[in-house]
Amino acid sequence: MASQNIYILGIESSCDDTAAAVLHNGKILSNVVATQEIHQKYGGVVPELASRAHQQNIVPVIHEALSRAGITKNDLSAVAFTRGPGLMGSLLVGTSFAKSLSMGLNIPLLDVNHMQAHILAHFIEEKEFQKPEFPFLALTISGGHTQIVKVSDYFKMEVIGETLDDAVGEAFDKSAKILGLPYPGGPLVDKYAQKGNPEAFPFPKPKVDGLNFSFSGLKTSILYFIQKQIKEDPKFIEENIEDICASIQHTIIGILMDKLKKAVKQTGIRQIAIAGGVSANSGIRQTLKEAEAKYRWKTYIPKFEYTTDNAAMIAIAGHYKFISEDFADMGITAKARIKF
Q: What is the CB neighbour count within 10 angstroms for residue 68?
């Protein structure tokens, strides 16, 4: 493979980030992301506005990715794109562009599952980062997903636990909203939590069978707790923001770790990787590092730029599909919901 010159263009447009990346034999040459600021004033992603912004961003973003990589479109071996899951309007922009480019250049088209790509980001060639060995467990945590996945090969993945309601990213963002913090609130909860006491305010952990998760009850208990405290002291949030955030984060991490420990016990797999936007959370990263010594796990934590939605992860998934000649045909369509 090293002697081959495989240039993969990855296109990611599943939500509100338009991204393009170029990989050469598994190594990143460029990774460009255009973030849409417009959603902040609405307190969440507006699908119609997202797809319009993708239409404006996709050509300049791809042009920039090729330019930074120092290649032209004629050097590309294949085009990889996010087929789903995601917002339908956003996915259609990336899918249509990828199909047109593939057809125009007469090169293979590679459809990628967004959630699989988050996990495969661990296989991007990086000097200081080790790649997991199969089989391993992946905890995929984002604004839309919370899953424990048994990964036996690049595209042999089995979801063994998932959320029954809210995703962990939603739990962070909705908790932040209750506290009056701006969207997206998850990173702000993390920021305040670093200075607070994680055991200041105990919140209940939901009782859920097996390896599945639930976060809606936690959100409700946080809401009732805050409402009660504000009634007694209107300045409660501003005077205790660090302790409140630390306590919320501590509870959420506890829920995730309880299920991970259970998954390790059930499968006997002690290699753990995290993936998805919420894996940028400092508390989760720290807890997972501590688990290496505490439980004799081997943990894999991705670089920050490969945690949130990005095209490098789409390109690496495309790279492995290209090697196995798993090409898509021109009849392929975007899918808002898609299974592993």
A: 15
- The Cα–Cα gap between 2 and 290 comes to 36
pTM of the model: 0.91
DSSP state letter for 40:
G
Residue 87 identity: L
By three-state DSSP, how is residue 84 classified? strand
pLDDT for the residue numbered 50: 67
Q: How many CB atoms lie within 10 A of CB 258?
A: 14
Q: Report which of 112, 110, 114, 130 is spatially closest to residue 122, judged by C-alpha positions.
A: 130
Query: Whole-number mean pLDDT of the chain?
Result: 91
* Domains of the chain, first to last: 7-124+307-323 (3.30.420.40), 136-301 (3.30.420.40)
Structure tokens at 127: 């000097």
Mean pLDDT of 253-279: 96
- CA–CA dist 131, 245 (Å, integer): 33
Closest CA to 31 of 5, 4, 67: 67
Q: Give the pLDDT of residue 183.
A: 80
Spatial strand order of the sheet with 298-300 comes to 156-162, 146-153, 136-141, 271-275, 298-300
Q: How far is CA 326 from CA 112, 125, 251, in A?
A: 11, 21, 42
